[in-house]
Each structure stands twice: as C-alpha cells, then as structure tokens.
C-alpha cells in the first residue's frame, strides 16, 4: 500500500505556508498540530553509532517545520507528496523505529486519480483528526496518487492493535471514507527516505 518512487521533481511553491496555488493541499491541510509531549529524559540528544561514526538526534519537536511539495508520477499517474523535509536529519531516529501508514481511497477523483475540490474538506478533517489522535506518533509525509491519499507516520512503540483501533474509531466518527491501516518496523526510515526530494 505504501508508494515509493524512483525519481522526484521538486516543485517550488513560494506560498505553501498559506497553501495558496496548491490544487492538492489547501491551507487547512497544513494546520496539523505536530506538538508532542515528551518525557523529561527525552530532552537529551540521542547518539547512535553508525558505520563507526556518531549521529546525534534531537527530540523531534526541536526540528524546524519545513513542508515541501514534490510532484512525480506513479505508474503513469501524477503523484503529489507533501513531506516534512527538515526531518531528513532525523532519519533513523532511535525513538521512532515504527512506521504507520493510513491510506484513504478517494470518492470523487479526477481522471488522473487526484481529489476534486469538493473532497478537500473531508480529507483535511481526516488529517487533522489523525494528528490529534495519534499523539505519540509524528506525521512525516502525505502522498496523493491514483485515487488514494496516504498519511505516513513514525511512532515510538509497537502497538499495531491499539493504533488500528484508534484509526477505526476515526473512520467511524468521520463517516465519510474508509481508512486502511498498516504498521511496520522501519528503523532506518526507509519509507520516508524514498519520498525525500
């Protein structure tokens, strides 16, 4: 279900801070609250030994927020990826080794598999609710292509049953779209790295 691409084309959208000029992610979809409460011991930087060198990690809430829009293709269909590019320095963060994917099939897609304007509000509401509900996970990317929107998170703990129950509850509460859940061990953040520009 997770989508990966061999190449990316970075799209320069100067007004992305407000969401203007973006046909895929209007302003409200950029309002996801990424503030997370961390225990006191997490305020220390983490060091991981990698290939004989040390890599230091900050708490994820200390990385600057820098969302970048990428345009690519997926099996001949257009693909738009909104990715938290500033987290490239957090790749492999030892506190977040588990990747969560929540895929949402579109109801009203264009011939190219992209959402129409009248579906934006529902998709934005799902995004906001996911962020509010999965408070111990961090949203790192959103993929839109071929009749599907997928939200990519990284989480601290392996709790697939609990996370899936939360996602199912969101599906019931929203009542507009089906939400498909998957969770995997991805300590190298391979899914995220494949989406970086």
| Strand and helix order | EEEEEEHEEHEH
The number of distinct helices, counting runs of at least 4 residues, comes to 3
Q: How much of the polypeptide forms β-strand, as a percent range?
A: 25-35%
Extract low-pLDDT stretches.
Answer: 2-23, 25-52
Shape: globular
Cross-sheet strand order for the largest sheet: 1-4-5-7-8-6-9
Major beta sheet summary: 7 strands, antiparallel
Radius of gyration: 16 Å
Extended strand count: 9
Which structural class fits the helix and strand makeup? alpha+beta
Spatial gap, N to C terminus: 21 Å
Fraction of residues in helices?
A: 10-25%
Overall residue-averaged pLDDT value:
80
Walk me through this protein's architecture.
The protein has 197 residues and is an alpha+beta fold. The protein is built from three helices and nine strands; from the N terminus they run ββββββαββαβα. The chain has helices at 120-133, 160-174, 190-195; strands at residues 9-10, 46-50, 53-57, 67-74, 77-84, 98-105, 137-145, 148-155, 180-185. The strands form two sheets. Strands 1-4-5-7-8-6-9 form a seven-stranded antiparallel beta sheet. Helix 1 runs antiparallel to helix 2. It starts with 8 loop residues before the first strand and ends with a helix. The relative contact order is 0.21.
Structure described in brief:
This protein is α+β, with helices and mostly antiparallel strands. The protein has helices at residues 120-133, 160-174, 190-195; strands spanning 9-10, 46-50, 53-57, 67-74, 77-84, 98-105, 137-145, 148-155, 180-185.
């Amino acid at each position: 279900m997770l989508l990966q691409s061999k190449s990316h084309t970075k799209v320069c959208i100067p007004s992305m801070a407000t969401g203007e000029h973006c046909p895929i992610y209007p302003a409200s979809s950029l309002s996801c609250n990424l503030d997370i409460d961390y225990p006191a011991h997490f305020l220390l930087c983490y060091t991981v030994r990698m290939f004989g060198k040390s890599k230091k990690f900050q708490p994820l809430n200390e990385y600057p927020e820098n969302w970048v829009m990428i345009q690519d293709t997926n099996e001949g269909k257009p693909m738009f990826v909104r990715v938290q590019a500033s987290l490239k320095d957090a790749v492999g963060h030892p506190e977040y080794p588990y990747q969560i994917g929540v895929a949402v099939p579109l109801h009203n897609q264009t011939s190219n598999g992209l959402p129409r304007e009248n579906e934006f509000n529902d998709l934005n509401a799902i995004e906001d609710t996911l962020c509010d509900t999965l408070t111990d996970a961090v949203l790192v990317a959103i993929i839109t292509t071929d009749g599907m929107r997928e939200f990519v998170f990284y989480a601290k703990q392996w709790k697939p049953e609990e996370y899936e129950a939360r996602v199912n509850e969101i599906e019931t509460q929203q009542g507009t779209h089906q939400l498909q859940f998957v969770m995997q061990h991805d300590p190298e953040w391979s899914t995220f790295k494949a989406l970086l520009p």
